[in-house]
Amino acid sequence: MMNNEIVLETKGLQKSFGKFQALKDVNLQLHRGEVLGFIRTCAAGKSTTIRVILGLIKASGGSATVFGKDAWKQSVAIHQNLAYVPGDVCLWPNLTGGQTIDLLLHMSGKKRTATTEALIQEFKLDTSKKNRTYSKGNRQKVALIAALSTDVDLYVFDEPTSGLDPLNEVIFQQHVAELKRRGKSVLLSSHILSEVEKMGDTIAIIREGKVIETGSLASMQHLTRNTVAVQTQQPLSDLDGATGVYQLQFSNDDQTSATFSVDSDKVGAIMTLLASKQIVTLKTTPPTLEDLFLRYYATNESQKVGE
Q: What is the pLDDT of residues 11-35, one digit of tens each?
């Protein structure tokens, strides 16, 4: 269950590599018992942000704290209560999967438990095989099993399901839900928007080194549009040019069947108009995270063209 305790926070985070400024203004907050979905466009600074949070590189400006500790200066103490899975796992080629899991646990001061064995069975990993024979998906399984075997307060997953089949993606999602129920905190970076939408309590969108929006999906849905499919007894010609209506398409010559998108703050007025036309069938679809993401992307691209 979420509470107000802040587990991870960045304020005005900046990072430069020579003259290139990878991070310009990254502000994030992750609370106890919360899943923060972190999504990005290409070359947005997501990986750099995670590396700063993990204490792998030093910020050029701003601050990053985990458990109230400085992410750079106190990284060793922080890592005792943190588990991390990267998006592209590199393993020791001559070790078996089982040996690697044991080694990763040992490096974290942990030991193999019944939980570890259950995870191996769930993910159907053959731990007797050498790492060099593993596919990308199996390498991800090794890291996920080791991470999920630990009992820590913060889990950082960077593209964790890359290479996994849909069944194993579901297994991962179930374990994230269980972590949340146990009051654990999760920073989840994923390019699979539906995955973030299913699990994220809060969503942060980063673009060109800045967090351009953060909040719950529900709180952000007012920024995009609902999709409407409707059939009425009377023509819907009044919709053409109506305020807040976009992408209007009629499905028949009588103009009694149409699909369109509508701004969330105009839904009430449009529903009143539709009701006056004697509705036969009506289907509305709320905006998804993908809709929101693509709208941000399109808006920023159009602004660039206009500059």
A: 999 999 999 999 999 999 999 999 9
123 in a structural domain: yes
Domain end call among 189, 220, 251:
220
Does 63 map to a domain? yes
pLDDT in tens, 216-275: 877 776 666 788 999 999 999 999 989 989 889 999 999 999 999 898 788 899 999 999
Phi, psi of 14 (to 5 degrees): -135, 150
Q: Which CATH number does the domain housing residue 117 bear?
A: 3.40.50.300
Is residue 205 located within the same domain as residue 255? no
Which residue range is the domain that position 247 belongs to?
A: 225-286
Residues 202 and 246 grouped into a single domain: no
Question: Is 304 inside a domain boundary?
Answer: no
Predicted structure pTM score: 0.79
